[in-house]
Amino acid sequence: QVQLVESGGGLVQPGGSLRLSCAASGSFFSIMTMGWFRQAPGQQRQLVAAIISGGSTNYADSVKGRFTISRDNAKNTVYLQMNSLKLEDTAVYYCNAAQVGSVYWGQGTQVTVSS
Predict the structure, then answer these.
(1) How sure is the predictor about 30, in pLDDT bands with cuts at 50, 70 and 90?
(2) Alpha-carbon span 50 to 39, nearest angstrom
(3) How many CB atoms neighbour CB 42 within 10 A?
(4) In degrees rounded to 5, what are phi and psi of residue 38?
(5) Residue 49 forms beta bridges with which residues?
(6) Cβ atoms within 10 A of the Cβ of 8, count?
(7) HEC states along the chain?
(8) What's the pLDDT tens digit per position in 58-107?
(9) How far apart are CA 43 and CA 49, in angstroms?
């Protein structure tokens, strides 16, 4: 079983930055694919960014060039650096961990971009 705990959400003005963190329990973090998803009110949960065990990343088109996902396997932690935030980035952000046969979710952290 893997537990994921997100932190770092909050209220920020347009153009600002936030860094989300997701700390994972368990012994297999380094081989997991980690991702960040987000869900805005009335919308489906969508992939924002993902990073595989080898470090390769992929991003939703809407965040390319603004968001950066990274991982620290020694700390069992994945990060999402969000820069140049826009109003439309407002959502609950969820951490996700996946390995063969299993998917895990964090409880979510609210990010609100507002002037």
Answers:
(1) confident
(2) 16
(3) 5
(4) -145, 155
(5) 36, 59
(6) 16
(7) CCCEEEECCEEECCCCCEEEEEEECCCCHHHCEEEEEEECCCCCCEEEEEECCCCCEEECCCCCCCEEEEEECCCCEEEEEECCCCHHHCEEEEEEEEECCEEEECCCEEEEECC
(8) 999 999 999 999 999 999 999 999 999 999 999 999 999 998 889 999 99
(9) 17
